[in-house]
Design goal:
The complex is a heterodimer of chains A (377) and B (285). Chain A contains 14 helices and 16 strands. Chain A is an alpha/beta fold and 377 residues long. In chain A, strand 15, helix 13 and strand 16 form a beta-alpha-beta unit. In chain A, helix 1 runs parallel beside helix 2 and helix 11 crosses helix 14. Chain A has 2 domains: 178 residues, 3-Layer(aba) Sandwich (Rossmann fold), CATH 3.40.50; 108 residues, Rossmann fold, CATH 3.40.50. In chain A, 58% of the residues are buried. The longest helix of chain B is centred in the first third of the chain and has 15 residues. In chain B, strands 2-1-3-4-6-5-8-7 form an 8-stranded mixed sheet, with helices on both faces. By secondary structure, chain B is of the alpha/beta class. In chain B, helix 7 links the parallel strand 5 and strand 6. Chain B is 40% helix and 16% strand. Chain B is globular, with a radius of gyration of 19 Å. Chain B contains 12 helices and 8 strands. At the A-B interface, strand 2, helix 2, helix 3, helix 5 and strand 10 of A face strand 2, helix 3, helix 5 and helix 12 of B. Strand 10 of chain A pairs parallel with strand 2 of chain B.
Chain lengths: 377, 285
Amino acid sequence: MAGNKVKRLIQGNEACAEGALYAGCRFFGGYPITPSTEIAEILSVRLPRVGGKFIQMEDEIASIAAITGASLAGLKSLTATSGPGFSLKQEGIGYACLAEVPCVIVNVMRGGPSTGYPTGPSQSDVMQAKWGTHGDHPVVALVPSTVPEILSETVRAFNLAEEYRTPVFILYDEIVGHMREAVTLPEPGELEIIDRAKPTCAPEEYHPYDTNYDVPPLAAYGEGYRFHITGLNHREDGFPTNDSALIEEGIKRIIDKIEKNKDKILKNEEYLVDGADIVVFAFGSSARSARFAVNKAREKGIKAGLLKPLTLWPFPEETVRKAAKGAKAIIVPEMNLGQIIYEVERCAKGVEVAGINRVDGEPINPAQILEAIEKFS
Amino acid sequence: MSATTAAKKKLSVPFDYDKYLRPGKLPHIWCPGCGHGIVLKSLLRAIDKSGLTKDEICMVSGIGCSSRTPGYVDFNTLHTLHGRALAYATGVKLAKPELNVIIVTGDGDALAIGGNHFIHTCRRNIDMTILVYSNFIYGMTGGQFSPTTPVGALSNTSRYGNIEPVFDCCDLAKASGATFVARGTAYHTLELERTLLAAIKHKGTSVVEIIDECPVYYGRNNKFKSVTQMMEDIEKNGTVSVKQADKLPPEKVQGKLLRGILHQVERPEYCEGYEKLIAKAQGKG
């Protein structure tokens, strides 16, 4: 056996909890909801063992509020939910975006709308992740498609939240959440861990939204920096403003801090995409079916490839543009009635873009994708 | 020196409010005649007496007129979403139990949109002090009836008289498990200061309902001629001290809200409970 690395057969949601602990998460606030509850159950046991805090709040809204408060008190914080809870959390997500509070929100996607199909998989919250809360705001969303990826992407989600002082979503469907795969747990120091920048200036000089920075350092409550945080449009000192120039400047800055750093935030996996005639753009469990279909197509002599985003928001515009060049068609399988396909179309002008969609709580199977590949080849 | 002279002398020393106010953040947004500033003064004097440093205090609020308080005071401050102050505060407190968390909220913020958080915070008995400024109206949005608007009272959404019964904030807090429940007013400022000091010192969830006046929206809608008349109404018709209530004939107490500490018990506090849980999880318990 090479090294002393622990390889374990674990569930997707368990990998999320492992990733959170590895990343230094020390606060979880949540509310029971299928199919994400295992994350809460595991962290209720594991967090206190490392001196962390777990609290089951009275509702979904309270959960996003509690993790935002805990983050401002200095702890890396997480909540996990599914569609109905994600809807309820939207106002609090907008607050964390505007107030620039790092936190991670997991949405294990199930069928909707409404209570929908609680135990069935779905990918129908991807646009809600982008536009669910009101107002213009930055969005970072990661979309793992395997159990090991859930672990590593959870670590990456915390790193991005801390580095860019913003909420980060992890979106995966129920299939990946409840699937079991072998995962090699990373050893301490193996994966990079990023902690938020803290102020080094004197407390009286501290501005929580200092415009000298793209991402201003964030003090924690109780450390001598008696700063003010509000969900109102604010000045760089954190206090509310009605000055139209400052309002626009503030909103643009929180969006720009993500836009400017897209290269560092985007992550894709390209499988046989170079020179491919048919590119399948797929994420989550749909990407698993897509890989199988691409292999089958290659066996049949069709030049097919898979473009799998791990960062869905910001959208990998350039990567899609490049993949579209020279391709005959792009196929977008998603467990919804067509959401991310419009983003792909936007970036692949002049190329045929076709969706494969289902909302019956069943996964998109490889045969469906292979059929589409053959049709366009 | 007689007791009276001593009291006079004590009162004559001006209290340095500026010590706790953020420079350059006044004037406040409150309308002339609003009671919120008076309550703030009582609160700052109570905080001063508590011996807490400014760094040790985290003040959290929701949305509404009273919830603007944290912007003016020199503590760790957090102005959150409508109704959600207690949930944000719970996160702060559990993450950093050494902070003394004070929540400023209003009748609509705490008891309507934030009702669920209110009862569950009381149930947990987490060590925070909740100030519910009750002026019987939504002021920030321009004068709509709230869960404490009296039956029959006029507001901009109850033009025919309010038909909804009121929440008794203190009864609700007690029934939900709060271990310190009190009521004060913007008229009885020294009594309020004492009540707030006791609330801050109490270990567990403390709720203080503070009756104060909104002359612009509640007063004008309900034919009060002046702020003074509203204050006198709070004093004479609205409230009676819990200490005097037993000595007064029932007709003088009926229909009035009791002032002072109404309920105080000891019960395990949430953050302390969590520390024990951590010890247990680490095999030390």
